[in-house]
């Protein structure tokens, strides 16, 4: 489940202050799922208000899919998504493009670290 670099901007595209201001009204309506995990990653999904997508700059979108690109941390934080460090945007739920999927590596302590 590696990130396809072709699905994100070559480097983070930061929002202009005027672009950021247009998103402020939506920040309190962003919904964060409970966390769930497998053996390697912890996951969660973040649901943006549908109307928020209309205010996000077009170069954040993948025109071939009609969804947001995979966002760099600086980009999703600029949109108003707040999470602890270590989360990576790895997919957009295409049937519902306002739902962004995130993952974070599970840090497991090795047995020798307990002593």
In the CATH hierarchy, what is the architecture at level 2? 2-Layer Sandwich
The CATH C-level class name: Alpha Beta
Strand count, sense and barrel status of the largest sheet are:
5 strands, antiparallel
CATH superfamily: Cyclin-dependent kinase, regulatory subunit
The count of helical stretches stands at: 2
User: Kindly, what is the distance between the CA atoms of the first and last residues, rounded to a whole number of angstroms?
Assistant: 34 Å
Query: Strand pairing plus helix content: what structural class?
Result: alpha+beta
Strands, total number: 7
CATH topology: Cyclin-Dependent Kinase Subunit Type 2
Question: What is the average per-residue confidence, as pLDDT, rounded to a whole number?
Answer: 90
- Overall shape: it is globular
What is the gyration radius calculated from CA atoms?
15 Å
Helix amount: 10-25%
Strand content: 15-25%
Strand and helix order: HEEEEEHEE
Which regions have little confidence, pLDDT < 50, spanning 5+ residues?
none
> What's the number of domains?
1
Pfam families: CKS
InterPro entries: Cyclin-dep_kinase_reg-sub (IPR000789), Cyclin-dep_kinase_reg-sub_sf (IPR036858)
Keywords: Cell cycle, Cell division
GO cellular component, one term: cyclin-dependent protein kinase holoenzyme complex
């Amino acid at each position: 489940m590696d990130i396809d670099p072709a699905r994100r901007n070559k480097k983070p595209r930061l929002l202009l202050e005027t672009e950021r201001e247009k998103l402020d009204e939506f920040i309190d309506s962003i919904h964060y799922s409970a966390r769930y995990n497998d053996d390697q990653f912890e996951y969660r999904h973040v649901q943006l208000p549908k109307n928020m997508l209309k205010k996000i700059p077009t170069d954040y979108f993948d025109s071939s899919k009609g969804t947001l690109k995979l966002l760099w941390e600086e980009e999703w934080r600029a949109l108003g998504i707040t999470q602890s460090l270590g989360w990576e945007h790895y997919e957009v739920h295409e049937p519902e493009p306002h739902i962004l999927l995130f993952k974070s590596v599970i840090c497991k302590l090795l047995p020798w670290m307990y002593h």
